[in-house]
């Protein structure tokens, strides 16, 4: 059922009348026995090493001026009309206060809930009128769709398209939490995706999550989205954000949300200094794969010599198989087809979960899709090493070493898997 928006909320003039100046260049809005004020938190671009936007956040105060928890505002029981009134009052207030900041270039990020904007909002000219009222360029507005369920995904997509047609950018907030996932990325095609703070926290605690974060950022870039890491609170988290390839950062480590004044970045927001520290850290750690390759190269060469002499793999690669970190050795041809049986080690018996026994036998398996095959083919006689990945032969994390060599008129790749857990 179509709902007339004029029956639901106050118009712009009515909202303006509900705002009042509380300081030079700052306004507050009255709503349900509370006074609402704007807080702005800077958003930084890592490559530009500077602020490129501000997220507008609402902060409620009681009638005596004492601050209230933002959760109190959003957890209150309200009907549909009151929810839309709150949404519009916040957007009006943020834009009015943002106009007073000494910044005529960067973005204003404004949060809206999926349920609110999907209630026939694509036919509602309120936000377009708001931009005209303040003479504010739509390309400086980023509409953030927060992580909340909606009962009408099609209407949400239409509403997001309305903001795009106005000329605004769109962002998906809290990606990785609840309903903010790849399904919404595909459906809404946002310009920016904000990674939920839980991701950076988990990445700083678990190495496997840290590796996954690189892949998630890469996938979002492939989907045509810029990526923002929010909730960065420590230098370690800032370094992880830099290393995983995000474009923007936001969080208490760089700047706090501030009410009633121009947001001031913290000393730790010196991105030039942070990037210099990161580059030094990368140089100091160097490439850990170099040491691994150097360690295993003699063992591979020994195995290759014995294979050329005609010894079977299990005997030729005995020194490799007996290495404490190696789980399995095998040979494949240049097409990726496995030659003969896999030579397994004692470590394989420990690593291999009996639940995955159907995957043990890999005779004649086709490994043409594996990176270690392509890398070996491109670099003959040079030992190659993959990034950690989940082995399909036992569902354990490993890296694969591979070496292409010639034996008679054949090109053979010898491989071995090394446990990383």
Descriptive labels:
421 residues, six-stranded antiparallel beta sheet
What is the secondary structure topology, with strand pairs?
Blueprint: H1 5-8, H2 12-17, E1 19-23, E2 26-31, E3 34-45, E4 50-61, H3 70-75, H4 80-98, E5 107-112, H5 114-117, H6 126-134, E6 141-145, H7 153-166, E7 169-175, H8 182-188, E8 192-195, H9 197-205, H10 207-222, E9 226-229, H11 235-243, E10 248-249, E11 258-259, H12 271-285, H13 288-308, H14 313-316, H15 318-321, E12 326-333, E13 338-344, H16 346-351, H17 371-378, E14 384-385, E15 389-390, E16 397-407, E17 410-419
Parallel strand pairs: 4-5, 5-6, 6-7, 7-8, 8-9, 9-10
Antiparallel strand pairs: 1-2, 2-3, 3-4, 3-10, 3-11, 12-13, 12-17, 14-16, 15-16, 16-17
Helix pairs in contact: 4-6, 9-10, 9-11
Q: What does this protein look like?
A:
This protein is of the alpha/beta class and 421 residues long. The protein has two domains: 5-285, TIM Barrel, CATH 3.20.20; 288-419, Beta-Lactamase (2-Layer Sandwich). Helix content is 38%, strand content 25%. The chain contains 17 helices and 17 strands. It has helices at 5-8, 12-17, 70-75, 80-98, 114-117, 126-134, 153-166, 182-188, 197-205, 207-222, 235-243, 271-285, 288-308, 313-316, 318-321, 346-351, 371-378; strands spanning 19-23, 26-31, 34-45, 50-61, 107-112, 141-145, 169-175, 192-195, 226-229, 248-249, 258-259, 326-333, 338-344, 384-385, 389-390, 397-407, 410-419. The strands form two sheets. Strands 3-4-5-6-7-8-9-10 form an eight-stranded mixed beta barrel, surrounded by five helices. Strand 15 (389-390) and strand 16 form a beta hairpin. The model is unreliable at 1-9 (pLDDT under 50).
